[in-house]
Structures are given as structure tokens and as C-alpha cells.
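USER:
Class, as today's exercise, take the chain set out below, and explain how the chain folds.
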Amino acid sequence: MHISTFGGDEDAATLLLHGGGVAGWMWEPMRTHLPTGRRLIVPDLPGHGRSADQDYESHDATIDQLVRVIRRERRPVHVVGFSLGAQLAVLLAARHPDLVDHVVVISAQTVPLRAPGLMVSLLHASAGLAKKEWFARMQASALFVPDELMTDYVRTSASISRTTLVNSVRENIAFTVPESWESCARPALILVGAREKPLMKRSASVLHDRLPSSTIEMVDDCGHGIPLQRPEWLAQRIRSWCDGGRA
């Protein structure tokens, strides 16, 4: 798994986990608003970007890889995840609280679809479209990918294998909150866009209800793309949360 790191090692590191269909580059607009010395760990998850040479197998297999990355830091890290990466952030905090300091969960689906088999079948049939530039550009608008990152998105979309696409989406649409989340003692911030679909808002509520000590916030004027729609605001909110502030 390809890992990019930034900043020094004086402070606890922040692990940034991207969503499905993109890669670590999606954090660039937000990263520019963080202090240059802040230590950041930005992987390209399996099957994505510069890790496209290994297929995405499952959330469990990816968690195993991320645990090894975190343990190399020799102290707990802050974990920030978006969409598919947000589900991984939940699993890390729930299963490995000793490795996680603060956690920020952005737009995680936690309510499974009723007919996941149908969705997977459609993906098998249409996976080739992801490699078409016109289709990738159409999908990019739904994720609020800015023009300056469009080339990265088109390249990432074209490199995703059918196996990665099917496995990552299957895991995403079937995800449920793990039981150990209810006893998670890590400070947890749950964010969802005010303009996201009802399913995503309901998912955020489920996550919060299962961990009442968490903080849930609805982000104004955002759909399913908070890190790319409001990068400066998100950088400030992450700094405040991970540095111990909650306001």
C-alpha cells in the first residue's frame, strides 16, 4: 500500500483515509490549510491510485494493513476518514482503540442497502464504464472534484480494477456499525453534509445513537463531498477536534 507522509514527528500523526474511487490526492485541498509541520499519513488504499497493483479485498484486510502502518508510529494517531475511508475509521476506533487518539468520521454509510446483490450485479455489468473518461468526468461532478484535480480523478478511475470496484462497493453498501463501537472511549466526531441523501443522514444518526458520547454535526451547503467542498473549514475543524477542542 502506497503511503505519503508530510510534516515532522513532534506531534501525534493524523491518518487521512480517502473514499472509494479516489485516492490520497483528494485530501490536497484540505492539506494546504493545515500547518506545514503537522505530521500526516496519507495512504492510497488498496486498489486505488498508486496502490492499484493490489486489489481491494475487504475492509478487514485493509484494516490489517492500516494497523501495521499505525504501529510504526509507536503512539496512537488521529484518524480522519471520508465515505469508504470513514467506515475504516470506525472499524479502527472500535477494534483498536489503543491505536487511535481522536477519530473524525465524514459521510459514512452505516445503513445497509436492502438489495446489495442487485447493486453488485450491476457493477459487474458496468465496471468498464469507469475506465471511460466521459463517464469518469460525469461521476466526478457528484463527488465535487475540482478542476485542478480532475486529471487525478480520471487517472484513478481508469486504474481501478473490476475486482476492486466490486469488492469495495460490496463492503460499503453492506456496512453496519460494529458492536465494539458502543464501548469506544475515543473522542469521536461525526460529520454529514446538510445536502446529502436521507440514507447518509440516517447513517450518521445511527452511528451517533450507538455511541452517545460522540459529537454529530451537519455541515451546511455540503453534499457527499465535504473535504472537497469546504476544505478550509474542515481543516480548521479537524485541528480543533484533534487538539482537544470541541467547539
About this structure: The radius of gyration is 17 Å.
